[in-house]
Amino acid sequence: MFIRFIVKYYNRETKREETGVFRAADYVRDFSAIGADEKEKLRELIVWFDENLPVPEFYDDPATRGEENHTYFWFKTDAAEFLEQMNALSEILQRNGVKTEKLRAERVPGKLIYEDYCQIAVVPLKDVSKIK
Question: What is the extent of the structural domain holding 19?
Fold first, then answer.
């Protein structure tokens, strides 16, 4: 099974709706009125992911990241530490007005284009259900 975290939020700086958990975390950290303790915890989580979450080479190349080539990342359910950290990040985002959802897929939810020990990246399919 695989788990994906998704968000939608209105970015007052760009004046548009945006997506992406890590973009949302940066936005809340930089532009929301949150307490110092929560801001520090959010900063620590962002740094933890920066240091621990593998980033495939193709994702670093803007030419391969266009909307028409968009890939979706899913955590493997046995990546417990990553899921724990994502849950903590999601809780902070939720408390600060960013709606966070978890999706679940029983099998690889699309064409698999990347895999490592904690995650997969796919070109998506439609057979995904929300976690209740």
Answer: 2-130
Q: What is the pLDDT of residues 35-45, one digit of tens each?
A: 999 999 999 99
pTM of the model: 0.84
Mean pLDDT of all residues in the chain? 87
Q: Phi-psi bin for 85: left (phi > 0), alpha (psi -120 to 50), beta?
A: alpha
Give the closest residue to 115 by CA, choosing from 84, 73, 85, 83.
73
Instruction: Report the C-alpha gap between 97 and 103 in whole angstroms.
Output: 19
The answer to whether the CB of 45 falls within 8 A of the CB of 5 is no
pLDDT at 68 over 50: no
| Tally of domains within the chain | 1
The residue type at 110? G
Q: How many helical (H) and strand (E) elements, i.e. helices and strands, does the chain have?
A: 4, 7
66 three-state secondary structure: coil
